[in-house]
Design goal:
Number of strands: 9
Structural class: alpha/beta
Shape: globular
Distance between the termini: 66 Å
Bound molecules: ligand C2E, magnesium ion
Oligomer: single chain
Largest sheet: 8 strands, mixed, barrel
Radius of gyration: 21 Å
Number of helices: 13
Helix content: 40-55%
Length: 289
């Protein structure tokens, strides 16, 4: 009986594996089609400056409107695109789309703001990334000062020495660099000090965990670290007044999360840019004193 069970178990496992790779193949095929037929869209989530309450930047976030399955989350298709290499084409599409939207926002006289774009590890590791970004900036005419590239901690910290050069070269194009999901990787502090990084993005898991003593201590430490290294700190995933009040009190530079705004359609960006959250921030801080 044990033998039969073992076999049944093995077969079940096999079928499950198979189903998973069929699913993967289907997604890969559909994604190719999606890029050809404009099923991808961008949303923009506001980032609020704690001191002024102004929306000074937005993060571009990709969405996939699948014709049969509806909206697919990037958490589901970005890893597939990363493993098939399609993330390279996807990443180029995102940058072009951001440039196109910026041209439009300029044309209606909107005050300039920074746009943050996620760069995947595979994209970052392309040997011609620098060349590509340089070409992109000159072809699109996008002011590099409007662009911040978000890199993950794990992508830049492995192979630290050679990445310091790579990041410096990117930065010399005039754009800003951020470390996304900071605190979840394995940053060596001695490396971090030498990295030409403008912004540390505190991972939302720490913001969600601020009720615990450890969670709060980690957030405090990252904000202090950013100050020491002359970097900006930004907290993502702010959903509650308690989180806002705590982070503002601790002097985080920027705040991003559903409490302020969800990722927005590009047509809603002009309104978002004109928002002034200074009274909201003052009121919430006062109520939590
Ligand atoms: P991320 O770069 O860390 O982006 C932040 C994620 O947190 C976004 O999820 C955003 O919608 C979500 N978020 C923002 N505020 C809140 C909040 O208050 N509460 C909660 N629960 N979530 C919040 P999204 O848009 O689903 O993207 C997930 C991840 O997919 C991103 O994480 C990023 O790693 C990746 N991604 C998204 N767009 C792109 C892209 O254009 N290129 C690449 N390479 N990756 C992307
Ligand atoms: Mg990000
Ligand atoms: Mg993040
Ligand atoms: Mg994240």
């Amino acid at each position: 009986a044990a033998k039969a069970d073992g076999r049944a178990c093995f077969r079940f496992y096999n079928e499950e594996m198979n189903a998973r790779s069929v699913e993967h193949l289907k997604l890969e095929e559909d994604l190719r089609e999606a890029m050809r037929t404009n099923q991808l869209e961008l949303r923009y989530q506001p980032q609020v400056e704690t001191l002024t309450g102004a929306v000074v930047s937005l993060e571009a976030l990709v969405r996939w409107k699948h014709p049969e399955r509806g909206m697919i989350s990037p958490a589901d298709f970005i890893p597939v695109a990363e493993s098939t290499g399609q993330i390279i084409e996807l990443g180029e599409w995102v940058l072009k789309e951001v440039a196109r939207h910026c041209v439009y926002w300029d044309s209606i006289g909107l005050a300039s703001f920074r746009v943050c774009v996620n760069i995947s590890p595979l994209q970052f590791n392309q040997p011609d990334l620098l060349h590509y970004v340089k070409g992109f900036l000159s072809r699109s005419g996008l002011d590099p000062q409007r662009l911040e590239l978000e890199l993950t901690e794990s992508a830049i910290m492995t192979d630290g020495e050679s990445n310091i050069l790579k990041l410096s070269q990117l930065k010399s194009l005039g754009l800003d660099l951020a470390v996304d999901d900071f605190g979840t990787g394995y940053s060596s502090l001695s490396y971090l000090r030498r990295f030409p990084i403008n912004t540390l993005k505190i991972d939302q898991s720490f913001v969600a965990d601020m009720n615990s003593a450890d969670g709060a201590a980690i957030v405090d430490a990252i904000i202090a670290l950013a100050k020491t290294l002359n970097m900006r700190s930004i907290a993502e995933g702010i959903e509650t007044e308690e989180q806002l009040a705590y982070l503002a009190e601790r002097g985080v530079d920027l705040m991003q999360g559903f409490y302020f705004a969800r990722p927005l359609y590009p047509e809603d960006v002009p309104n978002a840019i004109r928002q002034d959250y200074s009274e909201t921030i003052a009121r919430v801080r006062k109520s939590k004193e």
